[in-house]
Amino acid sequence: MEEVRRILIDNAHRLTDAAGRPDPAGGTVVLREAVRVALVRNFHDTMASPEWKSYMALSVSVNSLPAERRQVVRETLQQTDTVFLERMARFYEQIFAVVHRRPRPGVTYRQLVTAGASVVEGLVSRALIGSESFSDDRRGPGLDGEDVPWSLVATAFWALVEGLSEEIPVSRAGAPEHEGVLSR
After folding, report:
1. 3-state secondary structure of 133
2. What b/e readout covers 106-125, taking b as 16+ CB neighbours within 10 angstroms?
3. What is the rounded CA–CA span in Å between residue 98 and residue 64?
4. pTM of the predicted model, to two decimals?
5. pLDDT for 136
6. Beta bridge partners of residue 102, listed in sequence order
7. pLDDT digits over 108-154, tens only?
8. Dist. CA 148–CA 31, nearest whole Å
């Protein structure tokens, strides 16, 4: 999360146009870069996390537990999942407000987080078993359109962001359409 904040701060000048109005296209470029950089770190952190590995092992084996323990373990896993999803949904909402973006109609921040976590966790699971589909030879756009390396996890996550969210149109007055909603 700190890497994302650093990228936003370092590129704050890209979030507005020359007249100081919000620039959703600039926000998209900055968010794309944040995804490109941060998802590599997130992938490796998740892969190294003993807590995540324990969570995954329990989640896939909960139905094999004795009936008297199954419900308690399932409820604990659900509570852990809810805390994670809510925390990350708040983070996404904060970041999206800065980069002038919102979920597409019918999509919630929690759904974005759930889908994003599934991408990361699925790719981490495959990496842990030695899947050979993880070459980092993909290339894509950097901040200024230059050709830079993109990991599979960042590429997949960015496709998800593009598919489930959209830039917030700027009104004639120069304020994003959501201005009053997020300040409540």
Report:
1. coil
2. eeebbebbeebbebbbebbe
3. 45
4. 0.86
5. 61
6. 166
7. 999 999 999 999 999 999 999 988 776 667 899 999 999 999 999 99
8. 15
